[in-house]
Amino acid sequence: MAVCIAVIAKENYPLYIRSVATQNELKFHYTVHTSLDVVEEKISSVGKALGDQRELYLGLLYPTEDYKVYGYVTNSKVKFVIVVDSSNTSLRDNEIRSMFRKLHNSFTDVMCNPFYNPGDPIQSKAFNGVVSGMMVQTG
Amino acid sequence: MSIPDYMQCAEDHQTVLVVVQPVGIVPEDQFFRIYKRIASVRQLSIRDSQRLLFIRYRHHYLPENNEWGDFQTHRKVVGLIAVTTCSSSRDWPHTADRFHAQKEVYSSTLYDSRLLVFGLQGEIAEQSRPDMVFYPSFEECSDVERRVEDFVESIFIVLESKRLDRATDKSGDKIPLLCVPFEKKDFVGLDTDSRHYKKRSQGRMRKHVGDLCLQAGMLQDALVHYHMAVELLRAVNDFLWLGGALEGLCSASVIFHYPGGTAGKAAGCKPSVCQPADAGKRHRPGGSQNVVDFCSGYAINDVSKRRSQTFSPFMSKDEICEEIKELTQERQQLSEEEKIQRYSILSELYELIGFHRKSAFFKRVAAMQCVAPTISEPGWRACYKLLLETLPGYSLSLDPKDFSKGTHRGWAAVQMRLLHELVYASRRMGNPALSVRHLSFLLQTMLDFLSDQEKKEVTQSLENYTSKCPGGMEIITLPDGLTLPPVPFTKLPIVRSVKLLNLPVSLQPHKLKGVLEGNLSNASPFIYSPILMQSRGEERCKKIDFQWVQGDVCEVQLMVYNPMPYELRVENMGLLTSGVEFESLPAALFLPAESGLYPVTLVGVPRTAGNITVNGYHTSVFGVSSDCLLEDLVGVKASGCLVEVIPSLPRLQLSTSLPRSTHSSQATSKEELPSSVSVQLFNGELQQLTITLENIGSIDIETLELTSKNNNKGKNNKSCSVCVCCCSFFSFILSKRPLSTESVHQSDSKTLEAVLKFKYSGGAGKVEGYYRELSLGVHVNVEPSLFFTRVSTLPATSTRQCHLLLDIFNPTEHELTVSAKNNQDLVLHASECQRMAIQVDRFDFESLPQAGQQTPHLSSPKQLEEERQLAHGCQISSKLGICWSIISFRHGEASVEGVLNQLVLEHLQLAPLQWDVLLNGKPCDCDVVAECIVGDAVTLEVKLTNLSKNTVGPLALMVVPFQDYQNGVQNYDMDEAVTFIGSNIFCISTVKARDSSVCEGALMFLYTGDFYLNIRFQDDSARRGLPLAWFTLPSVHIRALDISTIKFF
């Protein structure tokens, strides 16, 4: 369902990025990288208004011809980006939301690992498994 | 096909378009001079009104764009100014024809035209024609501006009349339908009578009138007309024109609110925001709906662009995003150049709203477009320039310092890609230095992100490039002013620690004590102060507490490792220093793949004295030379980089006649001897060692001092001696002379050590109070040669002598020959024990110097006694002179010192009471046979010399003659054979110390024969308390001979 899932650190460098088509990975790198503009824009506009009571889910960041990019920002400014195929119309907002929640939970588990050094690329197998689940799972 | 004009802005809506073109052959520079003069007439105030007419000049305008003139009148070419040269009247018709042909192109929209003819004189120039102006030359045309003003005025008149014509045209029955070019074919066969059609025509006409009003400077009217047009067009769903009308409305609003122009919008405009923003919002639906109609892309392109530009302060970024998206979603077949232009514009727009990443993305796309394979002449230079502009968007700077500290910034995968592209572009541009720099940067900053394969590829290509153009440390400046700072390879190899090494022990300089003290007292008046100590401690952590010497090779040790998956070849690795002149001696090294920490020693020679700071090192890796400063390195343990270099000192080389050993014994390990001589000797063996000192430096040695230190392990009374003879040969100043001879007494412990220290100094270093010390360890391994297992004495025949019996054991594995003074050799087989008897004279120990008095610290009587015994032993040994030799190759001395016990010593000692017996005035002792003649009186003298400290006596001596039959029978009954003349008892009165007493008697032998005289003490009372040995008198052997027998002899 998702074609690319990325976790981006507070300082805007990737902690984790995985895409379905490995041969065209760079394209997703670009997509996710450019989506950060929109994420930052949304955070700055929302942050002022609502303070810490903001919604973590940012919604659709922008659609391209082939993909839709969704964003999610944790309270610690770690960004999650999910790219889905535009043709996949069955995916609703709610499902995207739940995907993000699942991703966030798994990410929290990673951070709880005392051997994980915050800021390092994520190499957790469990996290990888969750991401794979989201990418394979259809509908 | 029409070309979008991205440069347009809102104000352009109120301008009229005039094309200025050359006709025929016009020199370009001349044309543009005229063009500039024409273009200076930008606006014109109309007589009798406050209206202003704005003119936009173009020297090039596509007729296709002109066709859009109905849609937006500012796209319409309304005036044409042609510039031509004509030298003769013969050419004139031809020129005029060309002008008309040119006029033909824009004929459908042209209001008026002018031809400026230069160079023509004569009757044609004389005749005044309204649309032509004649000038004799380009220089003489002072009234061009006035002519242009006239021309513009005439255009205005036409415009105004058109406006009035259209505005008042209320007939309603037949309003022509205005169309954009692509619409024309759509309306063929459309019902022109329907209400819908009429409304559409009306709406479009209103919009057109609005345009005209705007151009004619009637802003209010324009707004009214636009409003009406919007109402009408919205009703008939004519989206393109509705969009056009809204755009016009919007432009009019903008012009109204910002008379100064939109280019310089400031925050001060805020109060008036509501209306344009409103207009913008209203504007939007029209615009976005237009998208549906993709053919209208041309219009939309610049519409969106303009809108975004104009309203960026007023609209949320989201909305602008939407706008921009319209630009991107357009799928027209554009030429490559247009694509580049479009992407650049997109990027600019994103930049404008603060989406730097998006901007960078599109800029990169534009750059890639510059060199797309479909382009016949790829513009690598342009591509490179565009790529450079994308750098900030990817948070990439070309200064490696930004990456050296902390975590990596930005998106590595994307940055890597970009750097690769930069490398490629710069290479294709034909600037290898640039590509080397970029590639080094890529390798240095992205090393952690490169896979092994990529590392290999990158380094390979780097090596390829550097073979043509070696990389250096200079700053590369691009033509557009951008500077590329040098990229030092601090990660190839990675340096983990830097340690300055002291000189080898033998070359370390030492400061003379007195001078050092003076320095310390200068530093502080206090003996101790914690505060001062702290500050000194800080200073010390920077400054290292040893010195380097000018002119000597100094070393710095780096711990490096190679992060690459293959062998790394580092060439020309040397030190970077400051402070003193330093000659670095570069080294080359090969680091194995993924090596662990690997020590590398960099060497150099300081050429002057002073404080030297090691700032870093330079390397040459893959053909790129880099200077790595320590302060830029991460995670480097440097224990201080400042060291004092003292003036030069001489150097001394030491060589020995015996082989050196690297063996350093534990006992002296704290002193770390640079070299030592190791010898294996048998106990008592003598070995000569020659030490040759050579001055190998260039400085004269002025002083040389030798000290020695023994390091004996174990104290044992048995001792032997090792003799070290030192001779030195100096190459320069000092002539050959023996230095010292040293004896080392050594017990039977296994090892013996001595340290010889040579202190020397000279040259400038000596002036500063420094010296060097060279030490040589002498290590002797002692093996036992022979043992005295038992010692005893036997009295000899003479009272002055005795026999020393030694039981000698040979512990060696060799056959041993023992010889003593005046004694025959004794051969001992391995592990054999034999007795040796040596006849020795008794010793007069009293005459020895008193050892105890010389060493007053040995106060206890026991020690005194020991000391005396030792001295005695020594004397005895030298007297004995026992030598051993192991067949043919080793020989030495042995000493009985220490094996002699008290009893033996006593026996060896000469008694303090010395008895001398003289017969006929001749001393008779031992085996000497005194002869006398039968019947003659023989005088017997007994002399007592008292050497003891006390008085002795009185004593009575009885002389008893006897005959020894040599078969164990002694006949004491000698009354018939011997007769005493006088008493046979001698009386010796008291003898004082150091005195002697003589008593005399006489006896006569009556028969020939061998007689013995036994001199006995009469009673024991007088000698009580004195040792028996003191009272041994020699026995006297007398042979009495017949006179005839003597004669016979």
Automatic annotation (TrEMBL), chain A:
GO terms for cellular component: cytoplasm; nucleus; perinuclear region of cytoplasm; TRAPP complex. CDD domains: TRAPPC2L. The keyword Transport applies. The keyword Transport applies. Its main location: cytoplasm. It holds the Pfam family Sedlin_N. It is found in: Cytoplasm, Perinuclear region. InterPro entries: Longin-like_dom_sf (IPR011012), Sedlin (IPR006722), TRAPPC2L (IPR044760). One of its GO terms (biological process) is endoplasmic reticulum to Golgi vesicle-mediated transport. Keywords: ER-Golgi transport, Transport. Belongs to the TRAPP small subunits family. Sedlin subfamily. This is Trafficking protein particle complex subunit 2-like protein.
Automatic annotation (TrEMBL), chain B:
It is found in: Golgi apparatus. Signal peptide: none annotated. This is Trafficking protein particle complex subunit 9. It holds the Pfam family Ig_TRAPPC9-Trs120_3rd. Residues 930-1020 form the Trs120/TRAPPC9 fourth Ig-like domain. It comes from Oryzias sinensis (Chinese medaka). Keywords: Golgi apparatus. GO terms for cellular component: trans-Golgi network. Residues 495-623 form the Trs120/TRAPPC9 first Ig-like domain. Belongs to the NIBP family. PANTHER family: TRAFFICKING PROTEIN PARTICLE COMPLEX SUBUNIT 9. Residues 795-908 form the Trs120/TRAPPC9 third Ig-like domain. InterPro entries: Ig_TRAPPC9_Trs120_1st (IPR058565), Ig_TRAPPC9_Trs120_3rd (IPR058567), Ig_TRAPPC9_Trs120_4th (IPR058568), TPR_TRAPPC9_Trs120 (IPR058564), Trs120_TRAPPC9 (IPR013935), Trs120_TRAPPC9_N (IPR058563). Transmembrane segments: none annotated. Residues 186-259 form the Trs120/TRAPPC9 N-terminal domain. Residues 313-464 form the Trs120/TRAPPC9 TPR region domain. Its main location: Golgi. The lineage of its organism: Eukaryota, Metazoa, Chordata, Craniata, Vertebrata.
